[in-house]
Amino acid sequence: MVPGTTFPQATEINAMFNESTFRRFVKKNPHHHMPFYARPSGSRRDFFRTLGAAGLASIPLQAQVVKGQSVQTQNTAKNVIFILLAGAPSHVDTFDLKMTNGITPGTFNSTDLKGVAWNTGVFPKLAGQFDDIALVRSARAWAAQHTLSQTWVQIGRSPAAVLGDVAPNMGAIVSIEKKGERTAGQIFPTFLALNSDGAIGAGYLPATYEPFKFAPNAAGLPNTTNPDGAVRLEAKYSLLQGLDNPLRVNSPYGDPMTDFNAFYQAARGLMYNPAVDKAFKYSTADAARYGTTTFGNALLTAKQVLEANMGTRYIQVSLGGWDMHNNIYTTQAGQNSIFSLGKVVDDALSTLIADLKSNGQFNETLIVMMGEFGRTVGQLSATAGRDHYLQQFVFFAGGGVKGGRAIGTTDAAGARTAEFGWSGERDVRVEDVEATIYSALGINWTNIRYDDPFGRGFEYVPYANEGLYKPINELWS
């Protein structure tokens, strides 16, 4: 597809919600708090009365599995690297820097970069790449609870909502949407989760779209050879196909056996394949360039996997340790702090950006980095830390994003949004980030799938058809 892809459906989204309208909508439609048991219900008599004159006319509409509004996507990115800073980093100490007298360390060395305050003391390498970075500072989380919000930022909706328990990770949606673009030789998983054991999976979608979870190491992927050798393995694998293909291919036992067959085929494709070793193994020297950390190794692997062009389109990378209730500014070795984890991010992410620019993949790879929420502002707590807080940042780079700026501003303390900075005229929510990711990849964010287990219709982005959530198009303008 080409930039500016238009999906030829019937209706244009033209609703423009400002902050007050948005709050009224949320109050009227409490979608972020509604549990499954609170769903609308009716009797059998009500069902047939409603069906009435319409008869079964509405039912064939759901035979079309995916429907959406007519929207124009950015369609500037081919790949996504989504970085989850688990534990929630302090926004006022990182990418929405606020220098509080007597509190903020002077070693942060606040520097004005094109009117944007930057923590040069912690992120000196990224400061040199500011022209490629766009910060959204008008972002706000829905909840300040780790498990809930970490899931929320991966599925783009409340986990407590009606379809929350079966909602797929954004990476799974990308995987199913991009399935038709895979070529026969592309044997890597479409959705890769690095250092992300807690990554949300494919939800109600087939297991084919689950994330491939892996903790990178220099030795590469394990179990890609067999003790009996390649020739003997092929003979055994062929025997297996002859014996039980009828039970696994178009299986009479349903999806579970079909899923097992897909796993067999995917695993077999990764064995004795030189492309796998090249993408998943790395040298000590390369690891050092990325900081010789588990996070650096993950970004190095992400770079190599995308460089291989073997079908991976969405990579989630997690870096935990940001839950800094205590000693947030400590410089003591072995303890997590803004200084220690900030250096990990600065070393690895700056090298990733440089490498993607060097190999020509930066403009086609959207990098999104965020936590599940932010942290309290102003004075530190009694334990010299910062507690949970809703205001947060979102970091964007690559994928055609125009860098060297911040979208939105917060007040002097960083407590609330002062200027929204985008057409939504309200705080940016994670649902908007989700819509932005889909739009960048040329995916219609208003799509609704009618194959969900409850038959309700699964919206890629909740309420997007009403115009409530939408992409942050200002990132490209």
Structural class assignment: alpha/beta
The overall pLDDT, averaged over residues, is: 89
| Unreliable runs | 8-17, 32-63
Helix content: 25-40%
Strand order, sheet with most strands: 7-6-8-2-9-12-5-13
Level-1 CATH class name of the largest domain: Alpha Beta
Distance between the termini: 20 Å
Cα gyration radius (Å): 23 Å
Enumerate how many helices there are, as a single number.
12
CATH architecture of the largest domain: 3-Layer(aba) Sandwich
| H-E string | HHEEEEHEHHEEHHHHHEHEEEEEEEHEE
The strand count comes to: 17
How would you characterize the largest beta sheet? 8 strands, mixed
Q: What is the CATH superfamily classification of the largest domain?
A: Alkaline Phosphatase, subunit A
Shape: globular
* Beta-strand proportion: 5-15%
Task: Write a compact overview of the structure shown.
The protein is built from twelve helices and 17 strands. The chain has 477 residues and is an alpha/beta fold. The chain has two domains: 347 residues, Alkaline Phosphatase, subunit A (3-Layer(aba) Sandwich), CATH 3.40.720.10; 48 residues.
List the helices and strands and how they pair.
Layout: H1 19-28, H2 44-51, E1 66-67, E2 79-84, E3 110-113, E4 116-119, H3 124-127, E5 133-140, H4 146-155, H5 170-177, E6 191-194, E7 212-214, H6 230-248, H7 255-270, H8 274-280, H9 284-289, H10 294-308, E8 314-318, H11 338-358, E9 365-370, E10 374-375, E11 388-389, E12 391-398, E13 405-407, E14 409-410, E15 417-419, H12 430-440, E16 448-449, E17 458-459
Parallel strand pairs: 2-8, 2-9, 5-13, 6-7, 6-8
Antiparallel strand pairs: 1-16, 3-4, 5-12, 9-12, 10-11, 14-15, 16-17
